[in-house]
């Protein structure tokens, strides 16, 4: 993990001897309601003041940096300025180069294992148990699921272009399109794309926008490794045991020794050193 990002441990390591799996807390939800009521009341009061005395409403943008944090990873809104690109390596007209860039998109780190008490505190339903430490539950971070979907859609188009048989069924591709559609609606991104005056109908040329830091999100996923690799899904999905897919614990993670003993390997064996599977393996 880049040292640039330091993440607080998600739970104290047992120092308070609290229950291991507390019920989802009622407190925060109640306090959120109270907070919302307070915000609503303040807003109504300002509207009344504004109507009566022409008082300017608070400029909420001033609070955005301090207040608007993402729900699970605590990412800051408007953390980085990102330029919109009309062309990028993912639109390279050279199909050979472009295919390899899309192939290099890796979303394996998006599978994370987090302490169950933390997950419950966040109001999450428990995911599947992390096999190497059952006090943790496994999740797939949505941004990485969306990358997975984009990559599968690209691959489907690539296979169509090359007249190759489709690796993914239509239902998987449709699911992926629908998830991306839902992402778009959920983020309801209201950034206004600058409309250029020329005939090309391109918008947002040379424009920047304010984003959360994907690098920081990625660093967070690396800090809570789910040790999972999709690999060649055609092959892996067909295996009776899915455990080998979950063996890629990085050096330094507390679970690596558990993985080693499960697979009867010595302390010099590190599954994370295995080459990452590529669409073009065997070419
Ligand atoms: C992926 O696995 C399938 C099924 O085993 C195999 O036919 C295919 O060649 C593999 N693809 C690559 C690129 O390794």
UniProtKB/TrEMBL annotation:
<dbReference type="GO" id="GO:0043386">
    <property type="term" value="P:mycotoxin biosynthetic process"/>
</dbReference>
<comment type="similarity">
    <text>Belongs to the ustYa family.</text>
</comment>
<dbReference type="InterPro" id="IPR021765">
    <property type="entry name" value="UstYa-like"/>
</dbReference>
<keyword id="KW-0472">Membrane</keyword>
<protein>
    <submittedName>
        <fullName>Phenylalanine aminomutase (L-beta-phenylalanine forming)</fullName>
    </submittedName>
</protein>
<keyword id="KW-0812">Transmembrane</keyword>
<keyword id="KW-1133">Transmembrane helix</keyword>
<dbReference type="Pfam" id="PF11807">
    <property type="entry name" value="UstYa"/>
</dbReference>
<feature type="transmembrane region" description="Helical">
    <location>
        <begin position="34"/>
        <end position="55"/>
    </location>
</feature>
């Amino acid at each position: 993990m880049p040292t640039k990002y330091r993440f607080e441990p998600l739970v104290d390591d047992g120092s308070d001897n609290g229950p291991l799996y507390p019920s989802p807390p009622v407190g925060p939800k109640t306090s959120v309601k109270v907070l919302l009521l307070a915000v609503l009341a303040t807003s109504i009061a300002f509207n009344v003041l504004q109507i009566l005395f022409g008082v300017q409403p608070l400029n909420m943008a001033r609070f955005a940096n301090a207040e608007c944090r993402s729900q699970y990873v605590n990412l800051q809104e408007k953390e980085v300025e990102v330029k919109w690109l009309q062309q990028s390596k993912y639109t390279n007209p050279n199909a050979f180069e472009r295919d390899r860039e899309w192939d290099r998109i890796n979303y394996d780190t998006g599978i994370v294992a987090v302490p169950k008490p933390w997950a419950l505190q966040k109001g999450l339903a428990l995911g599947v148990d992390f096999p190497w430490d059952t006090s943790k539950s496994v999740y797939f971070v949505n941004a990485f699921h969306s990358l997975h979907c984009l990559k599968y859609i690209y691959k489907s188009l690539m296979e169509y272009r090359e007249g190759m048989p489709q690796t993914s069924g239509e239902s998987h591709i449709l699911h992926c399109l629908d998830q991306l559609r839902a992402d778009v609606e959920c983020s309801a991104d209201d950034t206004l794309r600058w409309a250029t005056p020329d005939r090309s109908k391109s918008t947002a040329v040379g424009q920047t926008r304010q984003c959360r830091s994907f690098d920081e999100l990625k660093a967070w996923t690396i800090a809570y490794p789910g040790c999972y690799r999709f690999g060649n899904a055609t092959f892996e999905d067909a295996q009776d045991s899915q455990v080998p897919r979950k063996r890629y614990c990085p050096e330094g993670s507390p679970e690596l020794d558990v993985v080693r003993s499960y697979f009867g390997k010595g302390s010099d064996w590190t599954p994370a050193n295995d080459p990452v599977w590529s669409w073009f393996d065997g070419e």
